Amino acid sequence: MGATARKPARAQCAGFQREKKKPRRSPKDIYLQNDALRYTIDSISDGFFNNDDKEEFHPLVFSLMDPDDPYLLLKDFEYFADLKK
Fold it and tell me: Which of 17, 47, 68, 83 could connect to 52 by a Cys-Cys bridge, CB 3.0–4.6 Å?
């Protein structure tokens, strides 16, 4: 039998090229790289918004800093802060 040519992958047949996925930024990375965000999260954690009760907003801070946050909410902080200017 003769050698057969390999079939190109379906994406190649359609002329598409696969894009490399950008690594996902963690909430901790975003927190560390944005001074305004860090100040805001720290203020919430320190009880600034609730008469020094540090436990009241702990679930909120925990969910925002959760590395498994499927929505990566902290990523949008800078965008919304810019809208307020």
Answer: 47
Judge whether 45 and 54 are in contact, CB under 8 Å: yes
**pTM, to two decimals:** 0.67
Give the CA angle between residues 74, 72, 33 to the nearest 5°. 40
Model confidence pLDDT, tens digit, residues 9-64:
555 555 566 666 766 789 999 999 999 999 999 999 999 998 878 899 999 999 99
- The identity of residue 54, as a single letter, is K
Contact yes or no for 45/38 (Cβ under 8 A):
no
CB 74 within 8 A of CB 29: no
Task: Give the integer Cα–Cα distance in Å for 48 and 62.
Answer: 16
